[in-house]
């Protein structure tokens, strides 16, 4: 459990630095947009390409990944239905909220959780690929289409193909599938650039906390609470039921699926919301609240399933 605490502490520290910079007026709220653009158009694509290029695509078809996929679809569908009926008809905002209900922080929290709580790091790579190759493209495709508005049919259809994150993900998957060797002079600068992605996202997130307080009136509190409840409590519960009863996985895999389902919402959601200018505060608050709740939820799961 010490590794999990260290992982949370690292993330909290970088977010705190961003918040302090905003509070000290070293940076403004507009500056977070610059950090986000650098992350979205340069650092994140480099990171995703290097991660996927060295991964095994075949692991996407394991039982654990099916549990993760069905769990995501379930909580996202619940959120979309409730939000559409009670909160908003904005498709982009609903898409962001639904994704925050299920898209997990596998990169930062997932690795120490897999190593120190589950005892096996093999679950991280497959979940990263599931989110990058399936879930993120669907979300970004929806946001691209919504943003395109009255653009031509061809413009709407090809809009996702001009997204740097999707392009990098597809190229990385192609490299992995074909076994192509990337020369070190090409890979090394991409690894350096990709290493800046997470810090940039966390700093931008911390700067945003220097603006409106979390759960402020008029910022979509009900949407935040719904997404937080689904991500923190419903997602791991659904993962447990699916793993135990629907897919009949072993006790070890049931435990792994449930723990991974309790991961907090990824900072990517705030990055995407900021980039597409929809649901920014909702995404920010859900990331914050689920990160706070995830540790006690994981401790409870470990106690119940491992004793």
Automatic annotation (TrEMBL):
<keyword id="KW-0472">Membrane</keyword>
<feature type="transmembrane region" description="Helical">
    <location>
        <begin position="192"/>
        <end position="212"/>
    </location>
</feature>
<feature type="transmembrane region" description="Helical">
    <location>
        <begin position="34"/>
        <end position="53"/>
    </location>
</feature>
<protein>
    <submittedName>
        <fullName>AEC family transporter</fullName>
    </submittedName>
</protein>
<keyword id="KW-1133">Transmembrane helix</keyword>
<dbReference type="InterPro" id="IPR004776">
    <property type="entry name" value="Mem_transp_PIN-like"/>
</dbReference>
<feature type="transmembrane region" description="Helical">
    <location>
        <begin position="286"/>
        <end position="305"/>
    </location>
</feature>
<feature type="transmembrane region" description="Helical">
    <location>
        <begin position="224"/>
        <end position="247"/>
    </location>
</feature>
<feature type="transmembrane region" description="Helical">
    <location>
        <begin position="94"/>
        <end position="117"/>
    </location>
</feature>
<feature type="transmembrane region" description="Helical">
    <location>
        <begin position="6"/>
        <end position="22"/>
    </location>
</feature>
<feature type="transmembrane region" description="Helical">
    <location>
        <begin position="123"/>
        <end position="143"/>
    </location>
</feature>
<dbReference type="Pfam" id="PF03547">
    <property type="entry name" value="Mem_trans"/>
</dbReference>
<keyword id="KW-0812">Transmembrane</keyword>
<feature type="transmembrane region" description="Helical">
    <location>
        <begin position="59"/>
        <end position="82"/>
    </location>
</feature>
<keyword id="KW-0813">Transport</keyword>
<feature type="transmembrane region" description="Helical">
    <location>
        <begin position="164"/>
        <end position="180"/>
    </location>
</feature>
<keyword id="KW-1003">Cell membrane</keyword>
């Amino acid at each position: 459990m010490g590794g999990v605490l260290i992982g949370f502490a690292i993330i909290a520290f970088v977010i705190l630095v961003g918040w302090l910079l905003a509070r000290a007026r070293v940076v403004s709220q507009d500056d977070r947009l610059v950090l986000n653009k650098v992350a979205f158009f340069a650092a994140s694509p480099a990171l995703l390409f290097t991660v996927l290029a060295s991964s095994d695509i075949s692991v996407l078809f394991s039982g654990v990944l099916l549990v993760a996929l069905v769990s995501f679809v379930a909580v996202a569908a619940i959120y979309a239905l409730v939000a559409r009926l009670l909160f908003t008809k904005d498709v982009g905002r609903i898409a962001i909220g639904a994704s925050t209900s299920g898209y997990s922080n596998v990169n930062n929290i997932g690795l120490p959780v897999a190593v120190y709580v589950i005892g096996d790091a093999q679950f991280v790579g497959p979940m990263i690929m599931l989110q990058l190759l399936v879930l993120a493209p669907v979300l970004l495709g929806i946001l691209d289409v919504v943003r395109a508005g009255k653009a031509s049919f061809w413009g709407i259809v090809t809009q996702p193909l001009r997204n740097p994150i999707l392009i990098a993900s597809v190229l990385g998957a192609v490299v992995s599938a074909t076994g192509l060797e990337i020369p070190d002079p090409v890979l090394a600068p991409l690894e350096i650039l990709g290493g800046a992605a997470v810090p940039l996202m966390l700093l931008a997130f911390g700067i945003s906390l220097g603006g409106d307080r979390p759960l402020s009136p008029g910022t979509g509190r009900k949407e935040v609470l719904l997404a937080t409840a689904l991500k923190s409590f419903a997602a791991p519960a659904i993962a447990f039921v699916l793993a135990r009863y629907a897919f009949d996985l072993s006790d070890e895999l049931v435990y792994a699926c449930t723990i991974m389902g309790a991961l907090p919402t990824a900072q990517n959601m705030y990055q995407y919301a900021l980039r597409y200018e929809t649901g920014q505060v909702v995404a920010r608050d859900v990331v914050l609240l689920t990160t706070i709740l995830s540790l006690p939820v994981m401790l409870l799961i470990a106690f119940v399933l491992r004793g």
